[in-house]
Design goal:
Blueprint: E1 4-8, H1 13-24, E2 28-33, H2 40-44, E3 56-60, H3 66-76, E4 80-83, H4 90-95, H5 97-118, E5 123-129, H6 152-171, E6 175-180, E7 183-184, H7 193-205, E8 212-214, E9 220-221, E10 224-225, H8 226-236, E11 245-247, E12 253-254, H9 255-265, E13 274-276, H10 294-300, H11 308-324
Parallel strand pairs: 1-2, 1-4, 2-3, 4-5, 5-6, 6-11, 7-10, 8-13
Antiparallel strand pairs: 9-12
Helix pairs in contact: 1-8, 3-5, 5-6, 7-9, 7-11, 9-11
Length: 327
């Protein structure tokens, strides 16, 4: 039986790594994106390695449109669907709450309804998030920790998380949610704090800019490497029974720590360039995220391979190489 998987949000950080992983495992991958003329070339750059692979097909798909999802599933008859499409920037969710809810809640619901009516044997992965824990600082957080979302993004993701559990119980659908803590890579969007730091350090080193403007640098996060984390996504859909899993490194470090590693690697004094700008503070802050991945390690056999320092250095070196091309 041919293994076909649909990956939404294929042009993003996680989607591109997941597409590469699935193709390496013999899948035919149907990657989807919501195409816009202004973003097309930028968003496709992560898929250049696999664009010409006969095992990869790129389709336009707006996950808010139920009929499009039904047609996509009927056309390709997948055995697995990974829903990674989202409005994924927490800060933007405060300025665009309705769009965030539509994409991050209605989209997953459309997939669950389509699977229920077309083929309940399809296995479904939903990208949940550590942001659902919000201002609950009882750490480390695990699958049974209290959710306390403090952004429209986290609220939308939590609704989808509960929908996955409801459809699993009510209809016997093989549906899993991965509660992934912060995961970064050289493919991370430049509006996220880690890429903002690594790109700024590279540009300062090359004399292309002089300052880095940030908000709360004392927020703590559990940071891992996105390429490691997509392996856990795939592992979740290979188990005998569906369940939800928390994916994290089990360690927490601050934005300040990440910044210090990057600027030290660049041979720069961060205090000479850092500007704290109140406009980058969130209306509600998430002070500390720290995950306990014991369940994923025990049942899936998943362990992170990349350390926090290795990740920070990898991202800086990638941005330095990219920025040097502009000099």
């Amino acid at each position: 039986m041919e293994k076909v998987a649909i990956v939404t949000g294929a042009t993003g950080q996680d989607g591109s790594y997941l597409c590469e992983l699935l193709i390496s495992k013999g899948y035919t991958v149907i990657g989807t994106m919501r195409r816009t003329i202004s973003e097309e070339s930028e968003r496709l750059k992560f898929l250049t390695k696999i664009m010409d692979n006969q095992k990869f097909i790129l389709e336009d798909c707006d996950i808010q449109d139920a009929s499009t999802i039904h047609n996509l599933i009927r056309k390709y008859n997948p055995i697995e669907i990974y829903n990674l499409a989202a409005q994924s920037h927490v800060g933007n969710s405060f300025t665009s709450p309705m769009t965030t809810i539509q994409i991050n809640t209605v989209g997953p619901l459309n997939f669950l309804e389509a699977i229920k009516s077309i083929n309940p044997r399809i296995r479904f992965y939903q990208a949940s998030t550590s942001e659902m824990f919000g201002d609950n600082v009882i750490c480390p957080q695990n699958e049974n920790s209290e959710f306390s979302p403090v952004s429209p993004y986290a609220c939308a993701k939590l609704a989808s998380h509960h929908l996955v559990g409801t459809y699993r119980k009510a209809y016997g659908i093989y549906a899993c949610s991965g509660i992934l803590f912060n995961h970064e890579s050289p493919r991370r969007g430049e509006n996220f704090v880690t890429r903002k730091i690594t790109k700024a350090a590279a540009r300062i080193k090359l004399g292309l800019q002089s300052e880095l403007r940030l908000g709360n640098i004392d927020a703590y996060r559990d940071w891992g490497y996105a390429k490691d984390y997509v392996v856990a996504m795939w592992m979740m859909l290979q188990q005998d029974e569906p369940d939800d899993y928390l994916v994290a490194t089990g360690k927490t470090t601050s934005v300040r720590d990440f910044m210090n590693i990057v600027f030290t690697e660049a041979g720069l004094n961060v205090d000479d360039h850092l500007v704290i700008d109140p406009k980058f503070y969130r209306p509600c802050e998430v002070p500390k995220l720290w995950g306990d991945p014991a369940k994923a390690k025990r049942i899936l056999g998943w362990i992170p391979k990349t350390t926090f320092r290795e990740l920070a250095v990898k991202m800086y070196k990638s941005d330095y190489k990219l920025e040097k091309q502009n000099v």
